[in-house]
Automatic annotation (TrEMBL):
Superkingdom of origin organism: Bacteria
Residue span, RNA polymerase sigma factor 70 region 4 type domain: 111-161
UniProt protein name: RNA polymerase sigma factor
Organism: Pelomonas margarita
PANTHER family xrefs: RNA POLYMERASE ECF-TYPE SIGMA FACTO, RNA POLYMERASE ECF-TYPE SIGMA FACTOR
The keyword Nucleotide-binding is assigned to this record: no
Amino acid sequence: MTADSSQDALYRQALAAHGAELARCCAGYERDPALRQELQQELHLALWQSLATFRGDCSLRTWVYRVAHNVGARHVQQHAGKAPMLALDEIEHLPDDRLDPGHTERRLDLQRVLALVHRLALLDRELMLLYLEGLDAASIADITGLSARNVATKIHRIKALLARQLATPRSSP
């Protein structure tokens, strides 16, 4: 098998196993549909290119997430002036601006969570997106380079903040 066909095979394998996760990752980094589509294209290109150097030192899943979060972080930094990112303590007092009475309560809660996640500082956003994908602290630490204990502490703080925000009654339109 040639290097290109091996790279193509790895790319197909990565998409089959993690394509839905990549789409959700892009949604976590970008709210605007047009920019989200652009981010997805950048992500797929970067993933395909990166697989030429994949040696199997980590799992394919870890590799995919590293690429996804590097591309997502770069995207956020390039578009940082459009929507302010906030520290955890600053989010605590945000007004609720995501109301849509036509959706179910669960949908509203998901929208509220994503709206808060979109406003988090980049590292906190990355950690929460990985956590929401079901990764444990050790896996997230492997992807981000942080210690597992630091990851667990930060996620605990973010979850507590989100719980407090979701417990706050929404205002009427």
